[in-house]
Amino acid sequence: MQRLGEILSGFTRRYLPDSFIFAILLTLVVYVMGLVFTDHGPYQLVLDWYGGFWNLLAFGMQMTLILVTGYALANTAVVRRGLRRLADWPQSPGQAVALVAFVTGALGLINYGLSLVAGALLALEVGRSCARRGIKVHFPLLVAAGYVGLMIWHNGLSGSAPLTVNTPGHFLEKQMGLLPLTETIFRPFNIVVALVLLFLSPWILARMHPTGGDVAEIPAALAGSSGDGAAAAAEPPLVSGGPEAQQTLAERLENSRVLTGLVVLAGLVYIVSAFAQKGIAALDINMVVFIFLVLGLLLHGTPIRYAEAVADGVRSASGVILQFPFYAGIMGIMTSSGLAAVIANWFVAISTPLTFPFWIFVSAGLVNLAVPSGGGQWAVQGPIVIQAAQALHLDLGKAVMAVAFGDELTNMIQPFWALPLLGITGLRAGQILGYTAVVMLVAFVVMSVGLVFLP
């Protein structure tokens, strides 16, 4: 299994370019397919492409904010202190790896942006703690454990596809209506799969810890409590201005806890009111973003600290910001030309009611290599999947989660979302993907069984 993981990571390093290049290549592939399989000509397909290019601006902003607010929350002093305390718990290399994987996975079920950043910071702190205590832990494996939350995030509360179809006004609402979370995230098959992977992944990663002289400990540049470069990403943002007596009016406003308190108070009033009136149905994309924004403001304390944390997080969301218009353009070609209906009929032709979720899952895993954003993938694949499911009179909730499972699975060999983690820890993608690929193979079996056989 370790050898297979090395082969898979070598493949990704050699053949998978930047995800933006994939977005362009996928656009060209869909354009050619439109020429071959529909009656739209070259010029009409260009019009279809531009006609859809700006249709996902609101959705793209929602996806960006999910990542950025989670990132800002993970960079609060309270969260960092908690991570440092956790880092002293492990008493062996295997325990260290398992701890990082479990915490990262649990956070992934809450918010993938939070998991990404907190997983990286926890791997860093555990590596430092082990180095201080003389525990020789393999740092690349530790960092790989900090990425595993991206393999189960779509099962959880920030899942793009299930939250989107539960949000009024979503781009497929006319086609399928609203689908409550009780039909997606809170289904038995999804809960079982999430819990199995949450506990199984740490065990697998811990079992892969090298023995003998193959242990690559945390680099000396990162081993101290603070440092330059990547380590500095873990340090808290600075508060503008000097002592209070010397602050200007602008600086006083920037560091005002009163302003923050007013926003937090108003936010809490709305959140409590919404859940009191609607229950779990209140939890859509907008509510998830709003909850994390309010919590982030509360824990950062001042407006300027939160603004600086968000500015830091925007860098990690640059791929989403750039690529979403291209995904929307792809969707424009597929829907306007009728290509989505053609592909949907292909799935109908090879599927039975039993195997349909499995084939959607497999196809979504492949599409994720080219469209690493969960929201972007749903924008591209959602119209096809829903149309095919409706043609077969099948469970729409399971169809949505089949896309979600495929999207998250191949993150373990797609380094796009690992970029913030790699930046914080100073590693290369090839140093961790071999380990995560092994976990992916086991997860493939678990997810397949859950989709096909569980209710």
Descriptors for this entry?
70% helix; globular; transmembrane helix; transmembrane; 455 residues; mainly alpha
Kindly describe this structure.
The protein contains 23 helices and no strands. The protein is mainly α. It has one domain. Helix 5 packs across helix 7 and helix 18 packs across helix 20.
Which SSEs are present, and which pair or pack?
Layout: H1 2-15, H2 19-37, H3 42-53, H4 57-74, H5 77-87, H6 93-108, H7 112-132, H8 139-145, H9 160-164, H10 173-176, H11 188-207, H12 220-223, H13 249-254, H14 257-278, H15 285-300, H16 303-316, H17 318-337, H18 339-350, H19 356-370, H20 374-391, H21 396-409, H22 419-425, H23 430-453
Q: Briefly, what is this?
A:
The chain has 455 residues and is mainly alpha-helical. It has helices spanning 2-15, 19-37, 42-53, 57-74, 77-87, 93-108, 112-132, 139-145, 160-164, 173-176, 188-207, 220-223, 249-254, 257-278, 285-300, 303-316, 318-337, 339-350, 356-370, 374-391, 396-409, 419-425, 430-453. 70% of the residues lie in helices and 0% in strands.
Task: Please report the total strand number as a whole number.
Answer: 0
Q: Poorly predicted ranges (pLDDT <50, ≥5 residues)? A: 226-242
Structural class: mainly alpha
> What is the N-to-C order of secondary-structure elements (H for helix, E for strand)?
HHHHHHHHHHHHHHHHHHHHHHH
Strand content: under 5%
Q: How many domains, as an integer?
A: 1
- Let me know the average pLDDT: 86
Q: What's the helical proportion of residues?
A: over 70%
Shape: globular
Seen as an oligomer or otherwise, the chain set is single chain
Number of helices: 23
Radius of gyration: 22 Å
- Ends apart, CA distance between termini: 31 Å
Largest sheet: none
Protein name: Short chain fatty acid transporter
Pfam family, one: SCFA_trans
InterPro entries: SCFA_transpt_AtoE (IPR006160)
Keywords: Membrane, Transmembrane, Transmembrane helix
